[in-house]
Description:
Oligomer: single chain
Radius of gyration: 21 Å
Strand order of the largest sheet: 2-8-7-6-5-3-4
Helix content: 25-40%
Distance between the termini: 50 Å
Number of strands: 12
Amino acid sequence: MDDKYIAKRYRNLKPSAMAAASAISPRDDLINLTVGDPDINTDERIIKLAMEDALKGHTHYTTQRGDEELRAEIVRLYKEDYGMDIADGEIFVETAGNLAMFLALEATVDEGDEVLIIEPYYTPYPDQIEMVGGVAVGVPTSPENGFQVTPADIEAKLTPRTKAVIVNTPCNPTGVCMTIETLTGIADVAKKHDLLVIADDIYTAYCYHSKFTPIASLPGMRERTIIVNSFSKNYIMTGWRLGNLIAPPRMAQLFADINENVVFTAPSVSQRAGIYAIRLRKDIQKEAIGEFRRRVEYVAGRIKDIPGMDCMAPQGTFYVFADVRPSGLTSQQAVDALWKKAGVATLPGTAFGPSGEGFVRISCTVGMDKLKEAFDRIEKLPEFKA
Length: 386
């Protein structure tokens, strides 16, 4: 088809690094450490209860803002886990966290507005911002500072067009958990310069050394924060495509009004599954999160024994951001060597912004046997013996 039929804003849209990774040439012995999809299945109790509800008739549209029972469970979760009093009118249930983020941007960003994204950042952010007419502005961070952003880092990127900043902690791809000092610094800048904060709270259950603190819970932040949630990682429910947003009531209703023209409501059966996921979260997360913590700590230990690699101690998520600078290789050169010579697929740190140069993201979403095999191969490569 001739390009004249394609919208101008999409003519130069390129596949993301994650999409490119899915097209990696297959080989029989490939160990794929690119995918952020847990290899563990959704808990059987959630599946059975959701299917029972489907048989009882929960196969129709839900109300515009989502299943009332699910919204009530979200209210209860925030009270029990974070001491926050969330009103029902602040909640909007959406089809997956990715669409929830897009909806948050669509509802708030005008043409030419700038949205700050803290590097390294989740790959879709820049394209999502540009899709709604905004301008993505990267805020560099450094491994020497533990990839913690400072108020000075943020203020150096502010202009009269700055509208919002996206905050993701624990972070995909680095696994870094922002400290309370970091979150307070971001909040202070947001209040000082009247910025919106979009909190990408996707991996909240994966904080290994400290309790997760929502930035919206800090003084003066509720009225200027949109929370983006997903059931994919916290509840091992990637295929159910379920997420939600929390924002002031006027904004939550706007999400519903926009979404009516996109997908109307999230899948009803998935929403029923979400109810049981929240109710069973303590049991589900104890076992699953414990398994992923064992994996990332194992991988970090193996990396420490390889001269051409290094990494920070794991803090959260199921990713390890491996430092390949000791090898002298760039991110892409390291990824190429790992794939072509060891049959191990990873993602280059540069896929997550310029601050990711010199790193590769390793997703620990395969079992311990596969991780052991991957690092048995990697440690033999001459590129990483330096």
